[in-house]
Amino acid sequence: MQWLAQLFSRRRRYDDLSVSIQEHLSERIEELMEEGMSPQESERTARREFGNVTLVEERSREVWQWTKLESIVADLRFAFRRLRKSPGFAVTVILTLAIGIGANTAVFTVLNRVLIKPLPYPEPDQLVSVWLEAPGAAGLANFTDGLHLSSSMYFTFSEQNRTFQSLGVWTADSANVTGLAKPEEVRAALVSDGVLEALEVPPLAGRWLSQADQQPHGAKTVMLSYGYWQRRFGGDRSAIGRTITIDSQPREIVGVMPRGFRLANQDFDLLAPLAFDRNHQKLAGFGFQGIARLKPGVSIAQADADVTRMIPIWMDSFTNGPGTNPHFYETWKITPALRPLKQQVIGNVGNVLWVVMATIGLVMLIACTNVANLLLVRADARQQELAIRAALGAGRGRIARELLIESVLLGMIGGLLGIGVAYAGLRLLTAIGPSDLPRLNEVFLDARSLGFTLILSLLSGFLFGAIPALKYSNMRAGADLSGGGRTASTGHQRQHSRNLMVVAQVAMALVLLISALLMIRTFQALRTVEPGFDDARHLQTLRITIPDSLVSDPQMVTHIENNIADKLSAIAGVTSVGFAAAMPMQGIDPNWDEIRIEGKSYEGADPPLRLFNSVSPGYFHTAGTRLVAGRDVTWGDIYDLRQVVIVSENFARESWGTPTAAVGKHLRQFSNMPWVEVIGVVEDVRHNGVDEKAPAIIYWPALINNPYTPKPTLDAARSATFAIRSDRAGTESFLTEVQQAVWSVNANLPLASVETMQDIYSQSLARTSFTLVMLAIAGTMALVLGVIGIYGVISYAVSQRTREIGIRLALGAQKGELKWMFVRSALVLTGIGVAIGVVAAAGLMQFMKSLLFGISPLDPLTYVAIPFVLVSSAVVASYLPARRAATVDPVEALRAE
Amino acid sequence: MAKDPERRDLFPGTLEILILQSLRLRPMHGYALVKHIKQASDSLLEVEEGSLYPALQRMLKAGWLESEAGTSAKGRPTRIFRPTAAGIRHLEREVSSFEKMFTGITRVLATAKA
């Protein structure tokens, strides 16, 4: 605040000074008059003696000014004027910077939101996801990235642990809400006691689900997400205490979670208690994700050790039913692998974002290099002026400051525009960004982003300003006053730093282009993968869930589904319909279990785990999954509960050698279950996405005997995804007819996840295509900037060497030779840049490995093609100025000196 | 930039000494200072207004002087300057180094004569 006080006191001092001077003059005039001068004469004399009043006042005032600041302001004004005089230069530089800074700000903002603070929970460092691995369970690794918890584990771990403040399990589910408007399937998250306690986010209204809500026969309660509360209840607080019908059961709304609250990376509409019955829990059923909050000071390793200690307790406390061996799971070698919750939320999205950030940062560096280059050329043009000023005593710091002020001014203007670019960029990013980026929809320019922009603008201003400033500030006074700086020696020297910049630019552009091309090749490789379905554009999918509370008889469920399929088939333009428990790439958690093959001895070891799906007749035909051998299931198989199964081709080959050999063979789940006959083999399906290996899949008929119960009970695929093959897929009129067809069977069934297979497919490629787009943009920017850089340098070299060229031409040099001379120097620079770039790229690409698919990070084609493109661009960029050089008229060139 | 006139007529720093010494006798306003220095030096030294006012402002800023509103001998409003304690200390330091330098110069001149 001192400067403020000074500002006021300065004003006062100025007035005091005037008063003093005024009095001085008056006194002198009076004195002169006393000596006998006339009043006019006295005044004239007094003023003459005193000198220039204004000047004296001004110089007296100067004493009080902040010389530094005020002369910086003057410098700024000067810099502004100079920029206004060369609008072409200013616009080029400012636009380059605006784009560079804007792109960086946008990516930084996403990075900051998604990676740096992705967990909106108090003390997020204490939160862990409780993860298990089971290296002894063969096949498990093929389709999940670990072993989830069972409900019995939840009880053991929450009751016996020594390292957790609280621990709970949760699972994502869907629920049908009826009675509010039209029936709606919503995203539900089922949580056990301990989850909300661990996350420590208080409800916005009402209360948390409590332990009492977990009683299997206790209160039926539910919490709402902020979004669902707004959507269905308009944010009305009186919603609390009201009852809604979920899966045909009334439930009381007890609370609302605040806006933006998620369970790890799971969005939901409803939060319902899991309500396990502790007395009826088995060891098996590994379907739950665990979240825990560590006690203060407890490390993950300590918590791991704690869980290791509890696993034998778990095996002793529960069973899988009478006659089963409780220590069966010892062979699985279950080991805990707890990880920070943050890691689960981010997943490997982090890699993508860091690569994108590094890429955009490189582009920024290239842009700065170009701007530095332009500034150098400009400073060259001012060289004589600067030399004169140095000769007149302008200090080194003074000249450096002036050059720096200009570049920082450019940086700041660029940054200001960059904020606009960043805003637009963020809208684009959120629109095209992969849906698995956590909290991407909450990304906006905040104070931190703006701070980043400011720092980046200042830093880049200093960075590209420092090069000319360093170069010209230590110019010896009088060094270049003569000769106009066209002498060969100084020209060479100056060319040197620009050459370095070209090499750097080429190297950076090469790295970016290589990563962009590797990404393009990855994308191509992914597109050529046969996903196990075809013509995805004309494949409509939708999910229908028939809860137990609506229809309890499993056979009835299958009948309803059969009925729906028939109604859907009758719609105009529909060629075929089928359904399955899960369609590929939807991210629906698979069921799995061991599969034993008849006649095969496992010698004490356990057979590998296999992914399960259940299908209706016609599902494979509809989806376009080829039947490789045997036949499809029929409705007859299903209703007669025939012991039949279809397997995937990779499973058939692994077990019996060929698909045809598999038909007629037998397999089963448990040793006490009847054998089932393999009736068909279908092609492999990339169930988890095109970049994941196709898992071995066992396709059960949609209605089977439940293997988990000692007495055979029926089990239907209650949540079924319908596949409808039609040219009209995705159109509004078609969807209306589909909805009517479903509701003509049962009006209480909501339609969920209504999308075409193409949508699902694109989403599963979203991360790759997002990276691809970002890298392609960055790579193109880098190439263009790099080519401009080469062009600029060669073109400048030509203009500097006009005289030399004139002499050479006069002495009889061939024009072709001259052109080659310039092109050659560009080739040398590009060559060095390419060499450095190739080495750097090869190193950096190891970092990108996890993003690549079906392509080596050292893909030879890429490493040949990109240098070729760069070198060719360099030839073009240098040929144009070289041609200009060759047309120089020797006489003109010599006269110009 | 043209050189300050007092630099030609006075040794650097002398003006400040003269001002401080004069004001030490009694607080004065600008015009009185000019007259005082002229009289006290038997018209050998004449302080130019163009140097005096910037010097006064420098000394105010340096904290050697303070000023207050007052009236001149003729009853017109003006600023009266007086030295601060820091100003007196500065004066004493400067005078002693000035005297040393002067003694030195005198001695050199004396040997040159001899």
Describe the structure.
The complex is a heterodimer of chains A (about 900) and B (about 110). By secondary structure, chain A is of the alpha+beta class. Chain A contains 27 helices and 26 strands. In chain A, a hairpin with a 5-residue loop joins strand 3 and strand 4 (about 185-190). In chain A, helix 15 runs antiparallel to helix 23. The longest helix of chain A is centred in the middle third of the chain and has 41 residues, at about 490-530. Chain A starts with a helix and ends with a helix. The model of chain A is unreliable at about 475-490 (pLDDT under 50). Chain B is of the alpha+beta class. Helix content of chain B is about 60%, strand content about 10%. Chain B has five helices and two strands; from the N terminus they run ααααββα. Chain B has a two-stranded antiparallel sheet. In chain B, a hairpin with a 5-residue loop joins strand 1 and strand 2. In chain B, helix 2 packs across helix 5. The longest helix of chain B has 29 residues, at about 85-115. The N and C termini of chain B lie far apart (about 40 Å). The model of chain B is unreliable at about 1-10 (pLDDT under 50). At the A-B interface, helix 1 and helix 3 of A face helix 3, helix 4 and strand 2 of B.
Largest chain interface and its two residue counts? A-B, 25 and 23 residues
Main sheet overview of chain A: 8 strands, mixed
Ranges of chain B with pLDDT <50 over ≥5 residues? 1-8
C-alpha Rg of chain A (nearest Å): 38 Å
Q: What is the β-strand count of chain B?
A: 2
How would the global form of chain B be characterised? globular
How far from one another are the termini of chain A? 58 Å
Q: Mind telling me the C-alpha Rg of chain B?
A: 16 Å
Number of distinct beta strands of chain A? 26
Order of helices and strands of chain B: HHHHEEH
- Structural class given helices, strands, pairing of chain B? alpha+beta
Number of H- or I-type helical stretches of chain B: 5
